[in-house]
Design a protein that fits this description.
The protein has about 260 residues and is of the alpha+beta class. It is about 35% helix and about 20% strand. A hairpin with an 8-residue loop joins strand 2 and strand 3. It has two domains: about 160 residues, Trna Endonuclease, Chain: A, domain 1 (3-Layer(aba) Sandwich), CATH 3.40.1350; about 60 residues, Arc Repressor Mutant, subunit A, CATH 1.10.10. It contains eight helices and twelve strands. The chain is elongated, with a radius of gyration of 20 Å. The strands form four sheets. A four-stranded mixed beta sheet has the order 4-7-8-9.
Length: about 260
């Protein structure tokens, strides 16, 4: 039996029995109440710190003076609609990777506060993957001892949640993929009301005939913005697979999922 986790080290900031979908729905209701038709922030991402540029498409928000954290990013996602502050680039990239994982239907950033032995916050999120609730923390490879991991596994299991550690190295290794998903999410957020069902079915039929192809061959070298959105929706749903370990362009390989 492992030593029980010190309950003071983990604090739930949302109800521990609330599913990611319920948190997602509550966030959407709050946004709908605020949205009167003039809400312009959803696609925005803003870096506070040394780099004042927006990373990708979206409007740059007004600068806010802050000494801590040194970098922070505002971003809204499709699987979590509330405009959220991500306190590091790693947290933002991790959320983007979750957005690009079809088996993940919803996620909630910062649903709990976990402190390490030094008293520092360890970032994390909760998510729903293939019907299972999962708690994830982002940590350096050596940040948590085996004993700490086992204790955390038992703690979250008592709340009917699996527990996973995602290392910063794992996220950095998929940085190009995460940046592609950030770009796609921002474009999709800008076009949420676009009706694309007919064009989606047309592209899927075309791909079944062509087999594996490239983005340029499927929708043309000079794709219309509408076709780009259609393609991104198919990728987001997992109806298409793309090689995303390099920037999206006309040569990006596309195929139907196996």
């Amino acid at each position: 039996m492992h030593k029980p986790l010190d309950q003071r080290r983990v604090t739930f900031l949302t109800r521990p029995d609330e599913s990611p979908e319920q948190s997602n729905e509550r966030a959407q209701r709050g946004r709908d109440e605020k949205n009167t038709g003039a809400w312009t922030k959803p696609a925005a991402c803003f870096c506070m710190g040394n780099d004042q540029r927006a990373h990708g498409a979206g409007k740059v928000m007004t600068s806010v003076r802050t000494s801590r954290p040194r970098e922070a990013y505002w971003q809204r996602f499709l699987k979590y609609p509330r405009l959220t502050l991500f306190r590091s680039r790693i947290e933002l990239l991790h959320a983007a990777l979750l957005e690009g994982e079809p088996a993940v239907t919803a996620f909630v950033p910062h649903p709990f506060r976990l402190r390490d032995r030094a008293g520092s916050d360890v970032p994390g999120c909760s998510l729903r993957r293939n019907g299972q609730r999962v708690a994830q923390v982002i940590a350096r490879r050596d940040a948590l001892s085996d004993t700490a991991r086992d204790s955390l596994w038992e703690f979250f299991a008592s709340h009917d949640m699996a527990f996973e550690v995602v290392t910063r190295d794992m996220i950095e290794a998929r940085q190009a993929e995460a940046r592609n998903w950030l770009y796609m999410v921002r474009r999709l957020l800008e076009s949420e009301r676009l009706d694309s069902a007919a064009r989606e079915a047309e592209l899927l039929r075309q791909l079944r005939i062509q087999g594996e192809t490239t983005l340029g061959q499927l929708i043309g070298e000079t794709a219309r913005p509408r076709d780009e959105i259609v393609l991104f929706r198919l990728l987001h749903r997992g109806a298409l697979h793309a090689r995303l370990d390099r920037p999206l362009n006309a040569d990006t390989r596309l195929s139907l999922p196996h």
